[in-house]
């Protein structure tokens, strides 16, 4: 984006919560915090001060598969910002006092999350749907798991995962490619030792079908939630088909579930279906909110509406509408340097990066018949794990 005055620098690491062992729950996110507490050459707080002096901002986020460290700054300062970012992420200092203090910060963040009933419901769904798979573990950890973590455990986790073959850098916006690549080639990223792939990580996600019921304090309305296993993120053509199917189901008043459950029956107050692309198998998570006295009716009607939807291919005009909506959303989503980096980072990290317009090409390959035979059956109600959530005085 040569006319963009800003440069977005993303450093991605294949070190999300999926890669934790059973005794490391919450460690990937805790490490993300600790990285900002200083490095071999940066005192605590120096990274933030220098990035802000350059006119930039920084942040980080831990996901199930990976961790993203992000800097946005004026294009003229991009190389200095890249040097600071790689120093911080690759060579954290892990001082005992900083570790103890940051543990308190992470524990407080966990307490705040556990105080939000919507977050508790979402994590409960993942835990029960994913079974023993790491995708069902809480990214923030648990009070017990955080108490058990040590500096040595964190340092070992960093050595095990923050190495060559598990790192990717994306620069977008005001970028001079030759200068960028030359800086990378002479910097510490190019000299990083390779690490062996972790052992014992589940190769493919499966969902445990079933239907559970819980009650949560301070929940504003009842919820019916569902979770399906979907193809992994590397299967980009399938993911484009899934985007179309989700658009057909829940986007706009003409969509299948919205038109029936909200417009005709006035049964739901809100309805959302999200696709989460993941390396070991993606997740589709549905959430429908309704009045508590209508939850039982929603439990009957929502699976029935899905079953009806599966009976025949979508009408051509409905698929055309979904394709236009998906193209528009995707195109607008790539207008900023930051969103382009977020789109490219995970694919580059997993070794299957494609041109930015690949999804647009993939969308055009789907027909009503292929969508009906290959994608729509993935949303069969019997393949999902369902969770009904009611407001109540206590969880059960």
UniProtKB/TrEMBL annotation:
Chain ranges of the Peptidase M16 C-terminal domain: 149-325
Signal sequence region: none
Biological source species: Candidatus Synechococcus spongiarum LMB bulk15M
Gene3D superfamilies tied to this protein: Metalloenzyme, LuxS/M16 peptidase-like
GO biological process, one term: proteolysis
UniProt family annotation: Belongs to the peptidase M16 family.
Name of the protein in its database record: Peptidase M16
Every Peptidase M16 N-terminal domain range: 10-142
């Amino acid at each position: 984006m040569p006319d963009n005055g800003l440069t977005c620098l993303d450093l991605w690491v294949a070190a999300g919560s999926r890669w934790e062992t059973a005794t490391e729950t919450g460690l990937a996110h805790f490490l993300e915090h600790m990285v900002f507490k200083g490095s071999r050459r940066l005192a605590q707080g120096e990274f933030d001060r220098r990035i802000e002096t350059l006119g930039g901002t920084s942040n980080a986020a831990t996901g199930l598969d990976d961790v993203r460290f992000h800097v946005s700054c004026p294009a003229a300062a991009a190389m200095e910002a890249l040097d600071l970012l790689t120093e911080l992420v690759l060579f954290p200092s892990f001082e005992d006092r900083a570790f103890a203090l940051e543990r308190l910060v992470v524990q407080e963040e966990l307490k705040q999350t556990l105080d939000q009933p919507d977050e508790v419901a979402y994590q409960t769904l993942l835990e029960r749907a994913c079974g023993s798979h790491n995708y069902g573990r809480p990214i923030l950890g648990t009070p017990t798991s955080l108490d058990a973590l040590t500096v040595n455990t964190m340092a070992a986790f960093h050595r095990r995962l923050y190495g060559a073959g598990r790192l990717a850098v994306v620069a977008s916006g005001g970028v001079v490619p030759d200068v960028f690549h030359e800086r990378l080639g002479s910097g510490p990223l190019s000299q990083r030792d390779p690490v062996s792939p972790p052992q014992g990580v589940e190769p493919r996600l499966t969902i445990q079908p079933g239907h559970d019921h819980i009650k949560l304090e301070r929940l504003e309305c009842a919820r019916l939630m569902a979770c399906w296993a979907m193809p992994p993120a590397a299967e980009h053509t399938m993911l484009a088909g899934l985007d179309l199917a989700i658009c057909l189901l829940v986007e706009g008043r003409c969509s299948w579930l919205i038109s029936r459950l909200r417009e005709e029956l006035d049964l739901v107050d809100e309805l959302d279906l999200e696709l989460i692309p993941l390396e070991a198998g993606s997740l589709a998570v549905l959430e429908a909110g309704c009045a508590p006295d209508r939850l039982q009716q929603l439990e009957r009607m929502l699976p029935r509406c899905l079953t009806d939807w599966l009976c025949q291919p979508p009408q051509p005009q409905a698929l055309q509408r979904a394709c236009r909506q998906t193209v528009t959303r995707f195109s607008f989503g790539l207008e900023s340097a930051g969103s382009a980096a977020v789109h490219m980072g995970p694919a580059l990290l997993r070794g299957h990066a494609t041109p930015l317009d690949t999804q647009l090409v993939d969308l055009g390959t789907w027909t009503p018949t292929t969508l009906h035979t290959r994608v729509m059956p993935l949303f069969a109600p019997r393949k999902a794990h369902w969770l009904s959530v009611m407001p109540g005085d206590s969880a059960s």
